[in-house]
Amino acid sequence: MWQLSEGTSGKPILQYLKDKYMAKLSIVEHPLIQHKLGLIRNKETGTKEFRENLSEIAGLMAYEITRDLPLKECLVKTPLGSGQSKELTS
């Protein structure tokens, strides 16, 4: 197998790329995303519908990808008094 000598720690290039980039890969199997992917794959889908569905897919993916962001408890002041809430950790 082809090898790079610089920057791959002596690993075959395909293994190096898999280790480096595939660890960050997220497989999104949300039913709405799957449905919309089917719509944009359809050869009968027009440009306007394609773009609208692609935009919706991006929004849905943002929710899926950020699902496991770490949160911390915090105290917020509301019009009715203080209450517990959550915020993203820095």
Describe the structure.
This protein has 90 residues and is α+β, with helices and mostly antiparallel strands. It has a domain at 32-88. The protein contains 3 helices and 2 strands, in the order αααββ. It has helices spanning 13-21, 31-41, 47-65, and strands at residues 71-78, 81-88. The chain has a two-stranded antiparallel sheet with strand order 1-2. Strand 1 (71-78) and strand 2 (81-88) form a beta hairpin. Helix 2 (31-41) runs antiparallel to helix 3. It is flat and about 55 Å long. The two termini are 42 Å apart.
Q: What is this structure's SSE topology?
A:
Blueprint: H1 13-21, H2 31-41, H3 47-65, E1 71-78, E2 81-88
Task: Describe, in short, the structure shown.
Helices cover 43% and strands 18% of the residues. It is α+β, with helices and mostly antiparallel strands. Strand 1 and strand 2 (81-88) form a beta hairpin.
Supply database-style keywords.
about 90 residues; 3 helices; alpha+beta; single chain
Strand order within the widest sheet? 1-2
Q: Based on CA inertia axes, which overall geometry fits?
A: flat
Topology, number of strands: 2
Discrete helix count? 3
Low-pLDDT sequence parts:
none
